[in-house]
Design goal:
eight-stranded parallel barrel, Hepatocyte Growth Factor, alpha/beta, TIM Barrel, single chain, 2 domains, about 375 residues, disordered C terminus, 11 helices
């Protein structure tokens, strides 16, 4: 988040009304992902060993309790307290970067820099056989999905999403107008999430040649929320006020989104994020974007300062690669008061091979030391 972690620490509140839910048999990485996925969660307790909490009962190793509100830290052997801080989202361009490299950036104290990684990007095309929207992948995205990079990041507690982008076709995220098309597309997205073990999807509503439909995004995100419980539905925010002001069967886009990151990459933080508060989102869900393509150090530091000073959720960073450490340090020094560390031994090479075999070949070469 990076999460602030206190070992052998519990929650001394006598009132546990902020308890959202509890689960068991998780490791801390899975617990952290579960907490990141739900923006309502402010902190969680992870039991490494069995422990008894006075007034609350006994807990077993692997039990996790997720809370809203502020904890009251107190000594509790065998239990660790994880408290959310500002989150960081990475967009990785699958056409020229390895997704797994997101996990090679840490803060100076060893915590992972990124909480969320987005594979950029699958596309919405047109199904020329049956009609309607079709979820498509180029070779690089297919390779990223099949490579094992998703699971490698998840094992570090990092959430992984697939960003889905329009593709100059007559359909797109804001162009759905009939139930059959919406349901068919949602089923394709659900199948992809389940097949590759993703933590959710990200909506990038650009580059459509179709005619916008006001309630389209409210419609499709309502069905996605119903079909993907416990998963993230996020959106890259930009020029979308009409879709936030519309509703579908009483459901709004704002209520359906887990997170949103504004991606105009220009202007001050207030002008970029405050409109979404008025549209029904809350600060914990919102981030502003910085692009590392034509990176502006001063603008990034000003934006990070705004986020920190005004209590927004975090920051989104577009185009993360193997040379991003210096820029990430600019941001981490503001948000967390420490530098970002890049481990060059951790980075995996990207090669322009075809299909899912691409990443397998790369990993085999690196395992044997081949060039």
């Amino acid at each position: 988040m990076p999460y602030q972690t206190s070992v052998d620490t519990g929650n001394n509140q006598t009132d546990w009304s902020g308890l959202l839910w509890r689960t068991s048999t998780l490791d801390w990485q899975a617990a952290q992902r579960a907490a990141t996925i739900d923006p309502r969660v402010d902190f969680f307790l992870y039991f490494r060993t069995a422990a008894t909490v006075p007034g609350q009962g006994s807990f077993q190793a692997g039990d996790v309790l997720f809370f809203a509100g502020s904890p009251a830290p107190g000594v509790l052997p065998g239990c660790d307290l994880y408290t959310k801080d500002f989150f960081a989202t990475a967009y990785v361009q699958a056409n020229d970067q390895r997704l797994v490299n997101v996990g090679c950036y840490t803060l100076a104290d060893g915590r992972e820099f990124f909480d969320i990684a987005c594979i950029f990007a699958a596309n919405i095309g047109w199904n020329h056989v049956d009609g309607g929207a079709k979820l498509t992948f180029n070779d690089s995205v297919s390779a990223a999905l099949a490579s094992g990079d998703i699971q490698a990041l998840q094992s570090k507690g990092i959430v992984v999403l697939l960003s889905i982008l329009n593709d100059h076709a007559s359909t797109g995220w804001s162009e759905f107008s009939n139930e059959v098309d919406v349901r068919n597309f949602v089923s394709q997205v659900v199948e992809c999430v389940e097949t590759y073990g993703l933590d959710g999807i990200d909506i990038d509503d650009e580059y459509s040649a179709g005619t916008p439909v006001a309630d389209s995004l409210g419609w499709v995100t309502t069905l996605l929320r119903q079909a993907l419980p416990g998963k993230i539905v996020s959106k890259a925010l930009w020029q979308d006020s009409q879709f936030f002001q519309a509703s579908w069967n009483g459901h709004t886009l704002a209520e359906n989104l887990s997170f949103g990151w504004e991606m105009s990459y220009g202007g001050d933080g207030a002008s970029r994020l405050d409109p979404y508060l008025r549209d029904g989102m809350v600060k914990a869900q919102l981030a502003a974007g910085v692009t590392l393509d034509n990176y502006d150090k001063s603008a990034a530091e000003v934006l990070a300062t705004f986020i920190r000073s005004n209590g927004f959720g975090g920051i989104m960073i577009f185009d993360v690669g193997t040379d991003s450490g210096e820029a990430l340090s600019d941001i981490s020094n503001v948000l967390w008061g420490q530098q970002t560390i890049s481990d060059s031994r951790c980075f995996h090479q990207w090669l322009p091979l075809q299909g899912a075999a691409a990443m397998t070949a790369i990993d085999q070469a690196e395992a044997t030391g081949a060039e």
